[in-house]
């Protein structure tokens, strides 16, 4: 069982590591749902944090249908993360009909190699999650972050379980979206997922050490 904590600043990263997180997802701007962190933040995190860190590659908030210029920005940010030596990146790119943009996702996966790719909750915007799962596997991604197309993973636990079954270990299903210590045991039991994602935020938008410790204890 693995616990990934989403962090939006350096202080949260330190807290999460000390509290026992297995991996970090590094973003900025919590209010927008997370966008690509600054070069400075990436560099300092890589120098000082000693657990795996996956960098969010998202040029703006909003939808996941990107222009050619935005796509180029994503490519450049992936190269920066790769140059700095990160273990993975987190991204998602859709076509205008919200199906997975297979062609451009494959380009990003190839560019990122040997970093791992998590296809983020853009997955939850796709109209047919069963087809989207196969498309993302075909692209070479390592995992999918999903709440089961619902506001929270608990609400979407039925679909998450279905995705875990369908994946047949070809890809990791990372359950995320409102994951907390008061529901992670139910999620674990009902979805059979092996990896879980939480921001575990306190009121001041910093990672909450006690909550992370509780999450880890249930796993």
CATH top level is Alpha Beta
What is the CATH T-level topology?
TIM Barrel
Percentage of residues in DSSP E strands: 15-25%
Fraction of helical residues: 40-55%
Q: Can you write the helix and strand succession as a string?
A: EHEHEHEHEHEHEHEH
* Gross CATH architecture: Alpha-Beta Barrel
Radius of gyration: 16 Å
Q: How would you name the oligomeric state of the polypeptide chains in this document?
A: single chain
Largest sheet: 8 strands, parallel, barrel
Instruction: Supply the helix-strand structural class.
Output: alpha/beta
Shape, principal axes of CA atoms: globular
Q: How far apart lie the N and C ends?
A: 6 Å
Sequence-ordered SSE layout with sheet pairings:
Elements: E1 2-7, H1 10-19, E2 23-26, H2 39-48, E3 53-56, H3 68-84, E4 88-91, H4 102-112, E5 116-119, H5 129-139, E6 143-146, H6 157-167, E7 172-176, H7 184-191, E8 195-198, H8 209-218
Parallel strand pairs: 1-2, 1-8, 2-3, 3-4, 4-5, 5-6, 6-7, 7-8
